[in-house]
Recover the amino acids of this structure.
């Protein structure tokens, strides 16, 4: 597989690149690069309106991405967005403003990415709604008792499927079931789960599901919001402009009734074509067996890190992702990441856009190694060896 | 590195090293050059803004010489402070104000760091220069 990713052939600081920052973004196989290149080389045109051949090819390419997403996730409505963040903001503006009133409650968790906190804080200020945060416990799980208690009167539950810091997979079936029993809609931040799991959106029962292409071998700048039919009916247009209208006169406008209503302006055409290529490429991946392989590597790595005196933040249960966040007792995490980079390893440091979670864990950041399909056992073993050498030399 | 290395010598030493790990090791070692500002003296006035790490500096002028006390929670950042300490060693405030942060680029040390760390160094340099200016 690795030979399909041209970037993995390069060296960094004189060493073969070992890319362990997959929770931030994944690398792209040649087929994705080729698909986008081919669009710009041969089919570049705007979508939907013109009748010429290029416009037809561009429209087919763009809409093929939507069709693939609908099929892959069994989703009735797929709004193409700029990514997970834009998708969540779209729910806040298009659904939230039309359906939330002063005093209504929205339930969030301390495990959320900033993208699933800040839009709701902004909306809370504007609409005078209440935000309730479900705490994270010492074992890195959500406090489900407090979650259940927080549902009383709640109109919406926003929850991250898999934590980008901990790799912990939340019990979303139970969360959705409890939320539905209490009449609340559910928004799932699936940015970290979609790259690793097969998900049946309608079977799962959430109302909204947001994720990004670039975390699953697709291009940056594009993502999707899956929406249930009845939640879709409650959404009002958020951004006005071309493509989202049916008619416009100086007296007013009427809007499209399908997903285009929420895709104003020229959309991400090349990115959609690239994402579609990535989704088709992923069809050859056995997600379950890859998940097991990567999780085993994460468990082994975690144990090695603990043996070296590190603190590992995560548990790596069967449904969790292969994300390993850790801290050395004395060495600054950014210093460590710089030293690892000198040996070709790309890891992430910092607060990972999840400051409330880190505050709960009483830390300000971690070093994070996150694995994906193209990472090998040899790379993980080499990481441990190089890390050990670095600690011997510098700590 | 010798105890009283000059800035020119330091630039040459860095320019002779190609391996990034070795360069970083040299920066780590330069953290020892810093007259350490104890953490109990860290406050909002001493903080270097725009630095991802906790980085603090205090500038004083004694006998027409610039004195720098500094501290950080990162050895690499403290190593950068060590480089600045060497740059300011034995010079008057007016000589210090003629310095530009280009010496760090000449050393190639900023190339070995992330953009945020490089910006942090420039912020630290600017803060030190502003404090020297204010104390003149």
């Amino acid at each position: 597989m690795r030979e399909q990713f041209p970037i993995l052939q390069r060296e960094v600081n004189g060493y073969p690149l070992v890319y362990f920052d997959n929770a931030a973004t994944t690398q792209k196989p040649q087929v994705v690069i080729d698909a986008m290149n081919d669009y710009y080389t041969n089919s570049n045109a705007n979508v939907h309106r013109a009748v010429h051949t290029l416009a037809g090819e561009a429209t087919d390419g763009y809409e093929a991405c939507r069709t693939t997403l609908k099929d892959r996730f069994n989703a009735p409505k797929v709004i193409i967005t700029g990514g997970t963040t834009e998708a969540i903001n779209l729910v806040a503006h298009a659904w939230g403003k039309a359906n939330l009133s002063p005093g209504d409650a929205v339930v969030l968790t301390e495990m959320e990415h900033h993208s699933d906190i800040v839009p709701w804080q902004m909306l809370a200020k504007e609409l005078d709604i209440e935000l309730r945060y479900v705490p994270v416990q010492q074992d890195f799980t959500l406090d489900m008792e407090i979650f259940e208690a927080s549902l009383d009167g709640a109109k919406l539950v926003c929850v991250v499927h898999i934590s980008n810091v901990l790799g912990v997979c939340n019990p979303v079936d139970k969360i959705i079931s409890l939320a539905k029993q209490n009449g609340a809609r559910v928004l799932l931040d699936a940015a970290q789960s979609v790259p690793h799991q097969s998900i049946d959106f309608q079977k799962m029962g959430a109302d909204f599901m947001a994720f990004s292409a670039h975390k699953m071998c697709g291009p940056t700048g594009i993502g999707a919001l899956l929406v249930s039919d009845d939640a879709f009916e409650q959404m009002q247009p958020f951004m006005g402009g071309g493509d989202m209208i049916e008619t416009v006169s100086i007296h007013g406008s009427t809007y499209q009734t399908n997903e285009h209503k929420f895709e104003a302006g020229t959309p991400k055409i090349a990115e959609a074509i690239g994402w579609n290529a990535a989704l088709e490429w992923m069809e050859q991946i056995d997600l379950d067996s890859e998940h097991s392989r990567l999780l085993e590597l994460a468990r082994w790595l975690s144990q090695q890190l603990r043996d070296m005196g590190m603190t590992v933040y995560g548990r790596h249960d069967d449904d969790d992702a292969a994300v390993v966040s850790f801290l050395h007792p004395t060495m600054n995490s950014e210093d460590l990441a710089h030293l690892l980079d000198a040996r070709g390893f790309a890891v992430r440091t910092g607060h990972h856009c999840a400051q409330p979670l880190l505050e709960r864990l009483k830390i300000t950041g971690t070093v994070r190694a996150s694995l994906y399909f193209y990472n090998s056992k040899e790379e993980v073993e080499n990481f441990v060896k190089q890390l050990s050498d670095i600690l011997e030399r510098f700590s | 590195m010798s105890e009283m290395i000059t800035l020119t010598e330091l630039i040459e030493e860095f320019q002779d090293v190609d391996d990034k790990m070795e360069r970083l090791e040299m920066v780590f070692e330069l953290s020892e050059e810093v007259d350490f500002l104890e953490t109990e003296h860290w406050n909002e006035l001493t903080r270097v803004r725009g630095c991802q790490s906790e980085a603090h500096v205090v500038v004083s002028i004694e006998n027409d010489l610039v004195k720098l006390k500094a501290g950080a929670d990162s050895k690499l950042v403290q190593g950068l402070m060590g480089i600045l300490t060497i740059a300011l060693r034995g010079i008057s405030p007016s000589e210090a104000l003629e310095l530009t942060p280009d010496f760090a680029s000449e050393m190639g040390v900023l190339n070995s760091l992330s953009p945020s760390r490089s910006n942090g160094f420039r912020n630290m340099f600017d803060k030190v220069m502003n404090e020297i200016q204010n104390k003149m």
Chain B has a mean pLDDT of 87. Chain B has one domain: 7-135. The longest strand of chain B covers residues 55-62.
